[in-house]
Amino acid sequence: MNQSAVTTAPVSDGVRQALEISLRGAHELLPQDEWVKKLVRSEATGQPLRIKLGLDPTAPDIHLGHTVVLNKLRQLQDLGHQVIFLIGDFTSLIGDPSGRNHTRPALTPEQIQANAETYYRQASLVLDPARTEIRYNSEWSEPLGAQGMIRLAAMYTVARMMEREDFHKRYTTGQSISVHEFLYPLMQGYDSVALKSDLELGGTDQKFNLLMGRHLQHEHGQEPQCVLTMPLLVGLDGVDKMSKSKNNYIAITESANTMYAKLLSIPDTLMWDWYPLLSWRSLAGIAALKAEVAGGRNPKDAKVLLAKEITARFHGAAAADAAEQDFIVRSQGGVPDAIAALTLSGAPLGIGVLLRQAGLAPSTSEAHRLIDGNGVRVDGSLVSDKGLKLGAGTYVLQVGKRRFARVTLG
Length: 410
Prior knowledge:
The chain is built from 18 helices and 13 strands. By secondary structure, the chain is of the alpha/beta class. The protein has 3 domains: 4-230, HUPs (Rossmann fold, 3-Layer(aba) Sandwich), CATH 3.40.50.620; 256-331, Tyrosyl-Transfer RNA Synthetase, CATH 1.10.240; 340-409, RNA-binding S4 domain (Structural Genomics Hypothetical 15.5 Kd Protein In mrcA-pckA Intergenic Region, Chain A). The strands form 3 sheets. Strands 1-6-5-2-3-4 form a 6-stranded mixed beta sheet, sandwiched between helices. Strands 7-13-12-9-10 form a 5-stranded mixed beta sheet. It has a two-stranded antiparallel sheet with strand order 8-11. The chain is globular, with a radius of gyration of 25 Å. ATP binds at residue 244. Belongs to the class-I aminoacyl-tRNA synthetase family. TyrS type 2 subfamily. It catalyses: tRNA(Tyr) + L-tyrosine + ATP = L-tyrosyl-tRNA(Tyr) + AMP + diphosphate + H(+).
């Protein structure tokens, strides 16, 4: 990342600081000199810049990967700029082809509405809702109509569209590209026209779509927006980007105990990629912490600090402290104080049926698979016999390291 403007641009300290905040953790800021000019103008006129982030409600929950751009939006919001949280209820009907090697199935309006209802509520755990403008792109996309859509499509060529990496790759390998997928970047770009955006944020996989916004704003006689791309957060596996489909994610609505434990499970090396993207700690503070670990400090100490900070952000400091204590108890083989308690009948019950009825396994066959994998304990003792039957009594069932239930069997 070119940091030269931070040290050489003839700007005020306030603009210099705003640029440094903009660049923190970012992959690319385009064009950086235009963003500096916008910041200078905003400072001189007192007019906040309009900063846009669009998310399509393709799933009901937001995970930590989404918060990378949400965090950046909050940082710019705290500088006094107007942030716009755009819910892509119209573009979700098309389906974003970014990074896909096949056509994404379009969601139904009912699915989109159900997901959209939770999106802003969850985003408000990061953003300041009192200072956030929330919009839905159906507001201007639906009135556009067929005639407006044709005029919009005339503003970009098929040749330019095929320069897009994922389209080019799919075309050259003989994979299908549906015509409606060409409409997605056009409609996302048109969002910037409708909102008169000064800056649009997105992941690195969104660069083509974000630049489309600049192109269409120019076509409509507007000052083009700048583009700020953020790295895609690698998931818990340390390999692929965080995704619900990869099951390597942490949802921001997960319980404090689960969130804390998942954060501690990430590889040590991945922690240093997560820190600048998810933590509010200063870059100097992160560098000092990394140096301490390189000098011999236990890397788990740094991971605990990150886990507690993020857990506290979504659940409060007290819940983060409790989650830390719960993790310690579990890691030492103990049973947490707060576990689900239920009463079942039908003793004697087979262990597989019991785990299923206790909600610790989705099916009896899955329970047997867990037993084969040495993942089941009863009252602290490892279960190896899938034919085990338990008579009347009270038992503490454990699956893996974090799932418990106290069952009274009658």
